[in-house]
Task: inverse folding
């Protein structure tokens, strides 16, 4: 909410957040748009223009504010869910928050958006070309605030849907910051998956003309109905234009750009499939996957949150590792340099941790390529200290898998065995050199 | 050294590490090669075959060991440095250790390899096509053990060479694990650089047929003599074959594959140049760089090692950040999710740190793209808590720059000012979308 002089000014005009207003500036500029919530700082008010951009206007320069239309304050009229058409597959969309859910938020000024099937198909009627839609708002959090305990909630909700015969697949709308973590968590928490579980999100909110929300949702619904694989995947833009989407395996995907729409990449492998949402086509390119089937998926949704994720760097001190012991962490994933190295002077701390029954797993901060602790002396000393090299498992996936292994198994030897056993293609079975490319687009 | 039964067996044969031996196994297999130091574990001996591969043979299965040739135990005959040819430029090669220096190591069984100009040109005579070579072994460490205090040593040694009129450029041979860190450190520690400073290394040791050591050294010497830019750069394979090398800006480069020869990539930009070592050609593609010149470079070699580097992840707890305060760290770089976010519940810890005068800088774990803390509520709360967004500076570069800023400036406001001021192209001046590519090579 606005405070101080801004609030005073708005009160005088009887203008509230969400109202459509006209603002006149001292130089004669006239701006029309929706009054947005208070920006950081305070001495401006913010208007969302029709083109989707937000403009801040200094309070001192405002000559006049006029309300053109009050925000619809009454209960949002939620359109009724579309009726079921038996000849179409049914897709369940589960909302968890994030940019993909942000439109409703802005337009109503409401803090908690709800996602209803009626609204979804009203906004994106193309969805009905491929499936009937059921929707549920399970959570409403920005994905940077995602916690292992939420993964459990999501796993239970998704599992419930997978058990329903009439559901073809599940789509989970999620913020992009930690979407790869959650997709990976579901890959472990639901075993013997029987149908596709598709994570999707948006890099630009739906109130911006360049939003990728609708495109990604359509591609996800197509994936949920047409995919021959029963895996936890991420579906997002395949390139920066609106041509096709890529389907990435949840355990092998990484957010690789902070803002681009094609931010997600499959690491050490290729995507499972591509989807052309405007024509409803999907092309599977993976040679191997877990197929769909009519068995019953198993739920193992526990995650141990006391796992430390660290990154080796010059100057790294043992105290960073020893924190794990002091604070009761059960495991630690260290993203080493090169083939997985840490500075030699922190190796005694690794030994101290493993001697105390704390699992120490090693990944590489090179992102591409595999860990190998047998090549150099440092690596061999790390092995002697009890560190467990995790192949080419991504740091994010390794962290999730360790939380899951510690959440479901007590014995440290069993945890180690689980960490090294491929469960959901988290180790890439071929490390083809082709899947790494140098940015030589000079 | 070998111990126990293995030592007994070797003593009986009068075989020592470094000797050329013939081993006969109980199934009749005969292996010839250099006896290598004791492997981890112990019940095997290791032979390096002529093709460069190491083979372990179980002690129980050894029928016979025979020494073919004793290791040359006397002082290594160091070839004299080649005499100076005044018509050729002079390049100084400074050795710091790592894979690139590992050949001598294996062949002599010596622990400390020395790098002499005579040996270098004996092994890689092509170097003499481009320059006269002077060499110095400054350090001998695996780069995972690199410390901020070593950066100071390297900066002083490089600076000394840059002051010599007859030196055209400096090449620093370095392990690849943390080479990007050191290249970045030199970019800050030596200001107003007057000549190129070229970091290079090897992903495969020189005793392996696929070694990239010679190729990279030749490309580096060419760069040191022909480059029009006076910057700290990394020169490594440009693709997996032996065709060309890429010249990466030290502050914008990252080791991006644990094993490939073309492991290094320029992030958010293109390489400065390419080099074809077999024909001695260099093509500069950068539009902007710091040019060569006959001014005097300034030395500012201090680095504050008490900097924490952390990575945000779901489940991250405030205790990880508060460690900085408890253990007397002066600054911290957090690699946030997406546009630089951390879980909201650790934001009070950021405030506690900044209130205590600890610098908190934010980068993105997406690697590509820039930090922006103004878009989402979480980011704005981080700004309110005093976090400093560092644009598209790489996490590695940000860590080095913070160590450098804290090492040279006492006042925290000055440190903040320095961190946000572009000094060595550590902020990319254009974030062209082209420099990010999706792995769609299906």
Result:
């Amino acid at each position: 909410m606005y405070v101080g002089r801004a609030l005073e000014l708005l009160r005088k005009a009887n203008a509230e957040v969400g109202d459509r207003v006209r603002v006149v500036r001292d130089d004669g500029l006239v701006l029309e748009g929706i009054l947005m919530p208070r920006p950081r700082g305070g001495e401006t008010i913010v208007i969302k223009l029709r083109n989707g951009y937000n403009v801040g206007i200094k309070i001192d320069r405002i000559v006049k504010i006029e309300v053109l239309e009050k925000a619809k304050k009454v209960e949002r009229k939620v359109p009724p869910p579309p009726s079921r058409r038996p000849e179409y597959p049914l897709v369940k969309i589960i909302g968890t928050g994030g940019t993909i859910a942000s439109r409703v938020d802005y337009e109503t000024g409401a803090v908690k958006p709800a996602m209803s099937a009626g609204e979804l198909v009203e906004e994106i009627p193309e969805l009905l070309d491929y499936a009937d839609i059921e929707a549920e708002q399970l959570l409403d959090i920005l994905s940077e605030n995602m916690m292992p305990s939420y993964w459990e909630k999501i796993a239970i909700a998704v599992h419930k849907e997978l058990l329903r015969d009439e559901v073809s697949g599940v789509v989970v709308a999620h913020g992009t910051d930690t979407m790869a973590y959650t997709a990976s968590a579901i890959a472990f928490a639901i075993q013997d998956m029987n149908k596709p579980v598709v994570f999707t999100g948006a890099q630009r909110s739906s109130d911006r003309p360049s939003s990728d929300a609708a495109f990604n949702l359509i591609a996800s619904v197509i994936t949920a109905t047409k995919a021959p694989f029963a895996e936890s995947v991420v579906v997002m833009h395949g390139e920066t234009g609106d041509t096709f989407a890529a389907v990435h395996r949840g355990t092998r995907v990484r957010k690789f750009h902070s803002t681009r729409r094609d931010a997600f990449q499959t690491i050490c492998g290729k995507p499972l499939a591509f989807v052309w949402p405007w024509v409803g086509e999907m092309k599977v390119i993976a040679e191997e996957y877990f197929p769909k089937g009519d068995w019953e998926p198993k739920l193992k949704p526990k995650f141990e949150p006391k796992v430390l994720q660290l990154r080796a760097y010059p100057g790294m001190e043992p105290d960073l590792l020893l924190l794990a012991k002091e604070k009761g962490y059960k495991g630690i994933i260290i993203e080493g340099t090169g083939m997985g190295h840490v500075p030699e002077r922190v190796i005694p701390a690794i030994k101290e941790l493993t001697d105390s029954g704390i699992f120490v797993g090693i990944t590489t901060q090179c992102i591409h390529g595999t860990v190998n602790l047998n090549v150099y002396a440092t690596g061999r000393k790390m092995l002697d200290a009890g560190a467990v090299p995790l192949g080419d498992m991504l740091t994010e996936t390794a962290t999730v898998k360790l939380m899951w292994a510690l959440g479901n198994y007590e014995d440290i030897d069993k945890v180690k065995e689980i960490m090294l056993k491929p469960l959901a293609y988290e180790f890439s079975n071929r490390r083809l050199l082709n899947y790494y490319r140098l940015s030589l687009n000079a």
